[in-house]
Amino acid sequence: MPTRLPSFVRILLLTVVVLLSRALPAHAQSEPLLRPQPTTFTFPRPVSAAADDAQEQTATFGSIFSGLGRDFTRLPTKSNLLVLGLGGALALAAHPADSALTSRAARSEPLDDVFEIGAFTGGGWVQVGGAFGTYFLGRLSGNERMQSTGADLAQAQILNAILTQGVKLAVARTRPDHGRFSFPSGHASATFATATVLQRRFGWKLGLPAYTLASYVSASRLQENRHYASDVIFGAALGIVAGRTVTIGKSSARLDISPLVIRGGGGVSFTRSPRSDKSRGK
Predict the structure, then answer these.
(1) Percent of the chain beyond pLDDT 70?
(2) pLDDT tens-digit profile of 94-153?
(3) 199-226: b or e for each residue (b if 16 or more CB lie within 10 Å)?
(4) What contacts 32, CB < 8 A, 6 or more positions away?
(5) Alpha-carbon radius of gyration of the chain
(6) According to DSSP H, which parts of the chain are helical?
(7) pLDDT score at 71
(8) 171 near 234, Cβ under 8 Å?
(9) Dihedral of CA 258/97/10/214: which sign?
């Protein structure tokens, strides 16, 4: 008699199938590819330095909340859906080893010392507080770029919290320590949302350490026996989507990363883009 898949796996598998079916162009689903030519989806880039300046000046406190409706309409892009699809696929791949990975990490005393501050760093008070703190510091100092960045960070945290909590309630997966709402990891999604905003606005010089910190926080959730590997993987995907959504049209990074779909598989493409006049300091 075939084994019934756990509800978590069935829900995640359905989510991945739906997201990927929505992400692929209609003609790619109905017509077979004659040759394995890659189809890439790139994220929106700034139109001009003048547009960036206008966006910097509209970063008011009210815009943090009034812009959420606009952000929700921007969520279902091909790139975002592919990021979620890839995150879901990786989470499914990690699912069979979930219990073993978390158990091994939780029993490791050396790892306990290494990941001790992970829960604090990825907590809501730090991530949300840091976002609004950046906004108000920029406003008080008259630094419009800092103020605008803080607004983006705050919007990303709000959008990410809505997405993460919605999935948590829908899946209702039990945590390794028998607590509730394990999937996805809120610590992972929050820190990856912050890292994505910083990378999009300042490039990889700031993005790389931010993503490194986000990965550290995500790994700490396994060591503390609070999450499974699939929880943090999909949480990271949600955070990346939230961070990208609120920074559409504001990226100044020279190296852009995009999902890549080819016949029979997929991957990630790296595109080097010229800096705008503003990013060169003009």
Answers:
(1) 68
(2) 999 999 999 999 988 888 778 878 778 888 889 999 999 999 999 999 999 999 999 999
(3) bbbbbeeebeebbebbbbbbbbbbbbbb
(4) none
(5) 19
(6) 7-23, 26-30, 49-57, 61-66, 68-74, 78-94, 98-106, 109-114, 118-121, 124-141, 144-171, 186-202, 204-223, 229-246
(7) 92
(8) no
(9) negative
The DSSP output letter for 260 is E
Phi and psi (nearest 5°) for 249?
85, 5
Mean pLDDT of the chain: 79
Phi (first) and psi of residue 43, to 5 degrees: -85, 150
Q: What per-residue confidence (pLDDT) applies to 22?
A: 47
Residue 91 pLDDT class (50, 70, 90 cuts): very high
| Cβ-contact 169, 161 below 8 angstroms | no
Q: What is the CATH code of the structural domain delimited by 52-254?
A: 1.20.144
Burial of 197 (0-12, 13-18, 19+ CB in 10 A): buried
Per-residue confidence (pLDDT) for residue 114, from 0 to 100: 82
Place 6 in a pLDDT band, splitting at 50, 70 and 90.
low
Do residues 139 and 149 make contact, with C-beta atoms less than 8 angstroms apart? no
Other CB atoms within a 10 A radius of the CB of residue 138 amount to 20
CA 261 to chain centre: 19
